[in-house]
Amino acid sequence: xxxxxxxxxxxxxxxxxxxxxxxxxxxxxxxxxxxxxxxxxxxxxxxxxxxxxxxxxxxxxxxxxxxxxxxxxxxxxxxxxxxxxxxxxxxxxxxxxxxxxxxxxxxxxxxxxxxxxxxxxxxxxxxxxxxxxxxxxxxxxxxxxxxxxxxxxxxxxxxxxxxxxxxxxxxxxxxxxxxxxxxxxxxxxxxxxxxxxxxxxxxxxxxxxxxxxxxxxxxxxxxxxxxxxxxxxxxxx
Length: 237
Hints:
34% helix, AT3G44326-like
């Protein structure tokens, strides 16, 4: 089993609570400089541990670009024959060097396993929801070559839009400030928040689709009325 640290506040609470901590971290001087690195990745029930490096978050490029962190090299590749992608476990720790606080931005177990539409590589996805945004870590498994090829972390909001590096740092800083939980309750809460996020996202998508259908019907009706009016005017002349 890979390394697993107890995280801080995971973004729970109502909308009012979320707005309060967002305002708290909205000032430029409060923006933390965090170290983001994969703490460990391995196979379920195994004691293996793989360190995948650290990423600095202080550059202006990082702050203004859509949040994405890549760990593209694994020092000890795991042979494809020795594991099933669904058995992977991931720990992705974000650390504030000044305060010593840390938060895990990955679910311990995968939330989804699918394939890349073009390369056919297996994509194992781990995700948690912090402050209404989804942190998703994706492990790319190259089955032909027999190793884990890439590990990446991205953030998207409830509207499916990419969150900037600066916005993501504020979410992480707020998460670190909250009370620590840990244990089975933390995992259950994280799972519940992720399921709520997925349901909410699906609901918005369905609502958007219904609105588009309604708009199409209205446009068709207006067009039909216009045609009938034209024909009527021609006939009645």
